[in-house]
Amino acid sequence: MNFINEAKSLVKVNIRDYGMYIALIVIMLTFSIMTDGLFMSSRNISNLLDSAGYIAVLAVGMTLVIVIRHIDLSVGFAAGFLGAITAILLTQMGLPIYLTIPIILLLGIVVGMFNGVLVASIGIPSFVATLAGMLIFRGALLQVTEKTGTIIIKDDQFNAIGNGFIPSIMQINGLHLLSLLVGLVGILLYIYSEISTRRNKLTYDFDVVSKEIFIVKLVMVSAIIAYITWILAGYNGFSWTVVIMLLVVVVYHFLTTKTVLGRHIYAVGSNPEAAHLSGINVKKITYIVFGSMGMLAALSGILFTSRLQSATTTAGTLFELDAIAAAYVGGVSSAGGVGKVTGAIIGAIVMASLSSGMNLLGVGISYQYMIRGGVLAGAVIFDVITRKQRG
Amino acid sequence: MSEYILEMKEISKEFSGFKALADVNFKVGKGEIHCLIGENGAGKSTLMKVLSGVYPYGTYQGDIVFEGNIQQFNKINDSVKAGIAIIYQELALFPDLTVYENIFAGNEVKHGPFIDWNQTIVQAKKMLQKVKLNVTPETLVKDLSVGKQQLVEIAKALTKDVKLLILDEPTAALNEDDSENLLEVLGELKKQGISCIMISHKLKEVISISDKATVLRDGRTICTLDASKDEVSESVIIKNMVGREINDIYPKRTNKSFGEKVLEVTNWSAYNVQLGRNVVKDVNLHVKKGEIIGIAGLMGSGRTELALSIFGNPKAYKVQGNLKVNGVPKTIKHPREAIKAGIAYVTEDRKGDGLFLIQDIKSNVSASNMTGISTNGIINHNEEVKVATSYKKSLNIKASSLEQVVGNLSGGNQQKVSIGKWLFASPQILILDEPTRGIDVGAKFEIYTIMNKLISEGMSIIMISSELGEVLGMSDRVYVMAEGEVKGELSIDEANQENIMQLATQ
Predict the structure, then answer these.
(1) Cβ <8 Å between A260 and B311
(2) Do residues B132 and B151 lie in contact, with contact meaning Cβ atoms separated by under 8 Å?
C-alpha cells in the first residue's frame, strides 16, 4: 500500500514533467490501433525520428532562448542559408566534409552571437531583431542559390548524415547488431548513473525514493530504451540523425542540469534583476544562449540539406515556428525560467508523430494543420492549468 | 451646509487582522490647504485610498461626508464624479502623448461621436493658464520636467470640476524652484475655492503653506493643528509624529568593540539619468568592523539608491566619489565585483529583485556563490543540498523541504532565504535594506538575533530602515538621509526619535 501511495504522490508532484510523455504514449497508441500497428513498425518509427531531427535540434536551442524570455525567429532561414553555404563549400569549393561542418557550425555561432549583441547590448526586442534576421537570411538564401537554383550534393559521406545508418557489424535474425549493442550500452550506462546517484545521495544521508519505486523506474526506463532499440534494429538500426539528436540532448541536458552555466541561464530567465544583483552577467548569458541557438540552427541546416541531398531555394521555411511549437509542447514557459531540453525533444517527436500518423491515415493537409494547432493550444492550456494548481 | 467640504468620521480599516486605521477623524474646510503628516506606515495612504474609493464602501467602517452628504464610493470613478481628484507621486500621464491629449485623456471633448481636437486645444490652453504652466499644448509630456508634469496632472484634474485636490508628496521629486512654483499654484487654486489635502514630509513646506495640519500615527489621528492659532510648528509636529512606544524586542549585544574601517565612501554622488537629478548627493559614510550602522530616513530619501550605487551600480547611475574597502580604493562596476570585494546587498524588494520566486530554496541559496558548490563549472548537487540544509537550520527557515518553491514561503521565511543567499557568498559587509518589512514580530526577532550573531563573527552591517525603533534598537551609529544627502550622523547615545525625524524631514 505504501508503494502505491508513494507512486501516487510522485505522479502528482511531477505531473507537469510526465504530462508530455503520457501525451506521446497516448498519441502513439492511438495511431498504432488506427493503423493496425503500421505506425509502430520499424520503418515508420525510423523515418519519423529522422524527419523530426532537424526540428528537434532547433527546439533544444529555442527552449533555452525562451527560458531567458526571448525568441529567435531567424533560425529557420538561418538554417536554410547555412545549409546552402554547406552545399556551396562542398560542391563548388570542393572542401572536404570534415572542414565544412566545423566552418558552418562556427558561422552559426557568429550569426547567433550577432543576434545576442543586438538584443542584449543594443536593447532591440528579440522579436524584432530576429525578424529582421529572418528577412535578411531569406534574401541571402535566394541570393546564393539564384544562379544555380537547387544545388545537388553528390558527397556520399555528407548525405549519410541525413539518410545513412550506423554500420551493422552483422545481422542477427534480421536485427542490426551494432544498434542492439548501442542500446544495451545505453541501458547499462543509465542503470549505472542512477545507482551511483542514489548511492551518492545515501552517503550524504539525503532522502531517496523507496527501493521498490527505484527498481520499477529502472525497469520501466530500460524497457523503453530496449523497445525503441529493438524497433530500430528491425529496420536499418540507428540512423546518424538519431545519433546526432541523442548527442545534442545528452550534451545540453548535462549543460542545463549539471553546470553553473545552466543554472545561470535559468536564474536569468526566472528573474533578470535578481540575477544581475546576484552577480550574474546577464549579457554574457544572453550572448551564449543566442550563440548556441545559432550553432544549432547551423546543425539543423546541415541535417536538412543532407536529408534532401541538396540545398533548395526554400529550405528552412517555417522551421522557426515548428521549433517554437515543439518547445511549447515540450513544456517551456514564456514567462521565463521554466523548460527542459528533454521536453523540447519530446515536443518535437510529438509533432512529428502527429504528422506521420495522420499521413498514414491519409488525413488531408488542411486538417493536419488544424489538429497540430489544436495540440499546441492544448499543451499550453495544460501547462497554464497545472501551474495555477501548483502556485 | 457646514463649513467643511469633507468630514471623515470614525474611519476604521482592517487588513486581515491588522488595524491600519482606527477611528480616524479628519475634517477639511472649504478653500483650505490641509496637510496630512505621519511616518511611513502611519496610515496616510490608506486614509486617502478610503476617501478616493480604491477601498470601496463597505470595506471600512465610518462615514465619509463630502459637501454635506454621506458618500458611498464603490470605485474611483465615483469619487472623481463627486469632485475629488488624487495626484499620486507616480504620475499617471502618458509620456508619449501631447500635453493637451493628456489633459483630456478619459474625458475627451467630443463633437458627436468624434473628438473635437481644436476645441480640446483651446480648452487645454485655458487649463494651462490656471495652473500657470507656460508651455504649448502640443509639447510631449516626456519633454517636460517632473515639476511641469505635475502641473499637467493638476490641469487634468481641473477639467473634471475638482473641488478637493489630494496631492501625495508632490514636492518629493522636485527641485526648489519647481516646489515653490507648485505651492504658489496651490495658493492660487485656493483663491478659486478649491480645497486641497497635501501629504508631505517636508515640514518647512507644511509650515509655509498649510492652514491646518493633521498628524497621523499608527492609524490614529493624533492632533489637528491650526495655523491661524499659530499651532503649526516643527517641534510640535515632530513630537506628535514620533511619540510611538518602542517595545524592547531588540536582543542586546554584550561585546561592542569595533575594528578598522571596512568600508568608506567619500564625496559619493549618483546621478539618475532618467530622472535627470542626483539621487545621492555628496555622501560621506563609513562602517567599522563589527559595527551595525543604521541609515534612517523616509522613503525616497536616497537610501536604496546609495546602497545600489555602492553595490556595483546595477541601475547604471552616473556615480562620482571614492570608495575604499579595507582602506584600499576600489572601483566596482558590477554586482559581481562587489561580491568579490566582500559586499552583499539584501534588497528591499525581495520579491521583485531579491529572489527567484519560481525556483526552490536550494537554488536560491546558492545563486550568488555558484563557485562554492561547483568544480570547473560542474555543480555538485549533493554539496548544494548540504549547504542549503545548513542555512535552513542555522537561519531556522520553515519549509517542508529544500525543494519547496520560494514563492510559496511566508514573508519572514523568504527574507531568511534572501539573507541565507548572501551569507553563502561569505561577505564582510552586509547591506540590509528594510530587513524586516512586511514580516511578523517573531520573525523580526529572529532576524535581529541573526544580525547580532553575524556581528559577533566579525561581519559589519549597514541597515537601511524606515522603522525608527529598529534603527534605535539595533544600530551602533545612525546616519539620517533626506533628499539624497546625509543630513546628520548621530552616535547611538545621542540619537532619539525626535532628532532623527527632525533631520529626516528637512
Answers:
(1) no
(2) yes
